[in-house]
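Hey,

Quick one before I head out. I ran the complex with FE2/S2 (inorganic) cluster overnight. Inputs first:
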Amino acid sequence: MTGEITLVVRTRTDAAEGVVLLDLVRQEGGLLRPWAPGAHIDVVLPGGLGERQYSLCGDPAQQDVWRIGVLREDGGRGGSVHLHSLYEGDPVVVRGPANHFAFQPLPGREYLFVAGGIGITPIRAMVRAAEEAGAHWRLVYAGRSRGTMAFLDELLGDFGDRVDVFAGDEGARADVVALLGEAPDAVVYCCGPARLIEAVEAASGDRPRGHLHLERFEARALGAPVYDESFEVELLLSGITVTVPQERSILEVVEEAGVLALSSCRVGTCGTCEVPIVDGEVDHRDSVLSPEEQDDGVSMMICVSRAACPRITIEL
Ligand code: FES
């Protein structure tokens, strides 16, 4: 991910109950880095609150503004509460954008978008891109109540019955198995809470390679490592080899060795620490790469993924 810049809040808008939209711009005006649907930025929070990832949910054609949607989580770690305290003119330090949920619509192709709650933020830009590309698409949008669902009126107004709404307080629950079964040829993009992601993943077992794309907010539950012993990691560019004990991550060990390694979430959800694999079997434990990408063995997230053998070589 690219270096830090400080932007300012140009506009703050209440988008739904507990959801605020922040439009971020350069204080002096001017263009920001381009982005495509599915991209996110890292927001670097003050006061030791760390970093959080937020999907860009505006219009990629508006190149002077990045829009993020933030759900207030009062029981969270404080990041969303801080962002909800911001108003016009307040500074926000960001990095990015990066994209591990990329969407390249093809005319005539069929897409099924599944969004749960604030998971609508990356999906909103995808829906519009699919529409512009002349693709066939349908959106399944689930939330606690209509009042908590950002962009709902806009999406219903613009696209009508191509949007299926499931509001929990109306007793409507999305039957994921049935919905996916009705679209066997569709390429599926899903973003939302863990239980929605898991349901979509479970219902997509025999979908062809490349037909399921997931973006998780939370790290997926991990089982025991494949190789439950310490292992060696040769760092090709640094010219050293480190030993990673069972209870530590590759990232921690390489940082301790004085090697510069980028990181952000450190739990396998953001993709910042991605490093190319040169040699060896890897136990992929991240929530970013698709199963196909993990099988390809091109890269790994060194904050959570480990060796599946006594020694691996990575490009670091
Ligand atoms: S630091 Fe976020 S995936 Fe590793």
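Helices lie at 79-84, 120-133, 152-159, 176-181, 194-202, 250-256, 291-296.

Talk tomorrow,
K.
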